[in-house]
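Usage

Read records sequentially. Each one opens with the input sequence:
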Amino acid sequence: MRVPKTKSVAPTSSHATGLWQGTARLLSTLNGVAPETINELTSAAVMLELPPRAVIYNPGDKCAGLYLIASGKVKLSSRSPGSKARVIALLSAGAWFGETALLLREHHALGAQTTERVILARVASATVIRLLQKDHAFALKMLTETARRLRSSMLEATEIATPARKRVIGYLLDDVATWKPRTGAITIRLPAVKRVVASRLGIAGETLSRVFQELSREKLIAVDGPRVYVRDVRKLRAAYLQ
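and closes with the structure output:
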């Protein structure tokens, strides 16, 4: 596994360990994972503090375990021969990744890279497998997350012919849905630079900028750097349905 310019943080580091323990407690309280499982994950975790654009692993690398994000953002991407890497997912604090290669006992099919400074907890594969067999709630949580990502990939595959405008509006509405407002204004912070978001949507960076400009002229949104101000969620949803 290649991790350039990374800083390994000892489990006793108060900053890194504090973030990780907070993330672990969240897994326990919100998802029913047994406290004993959380304690074992916490004890077994190796903390990694990585700078922006650090490679966590490349496609084809051997799986070293399960990664959980304590802070920062990570992008998962695929690369086809003769084409640029395509961003498959943008993950934030509280998410985990690497479970597919771990469960299948295969090398990674996707690559993982940081988009900003990140603190990760890495738990060895053998420990994760043992805990999955022991804690059914933990196993169900991992199965649910894997199924959710599979569904997302399947939906994206059916939307290849969807116009760029609709893809962008749908992406913004998906983010809005996490806050659950039905009407009114809301500010969204893009999880990565615009070219990465564009790759996630399967469009060019110039296309994303053009759609943002169109929506701004229509007074549906206003863009200020990484912040997108949705003027009225109801109107943006109506524009998606047009």
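Summary fields computed downstream for this record:
- The two ends are 47 Å apart (CA to CA).
- Residues 78 and 84 are 9 Å apart (CA to CA).
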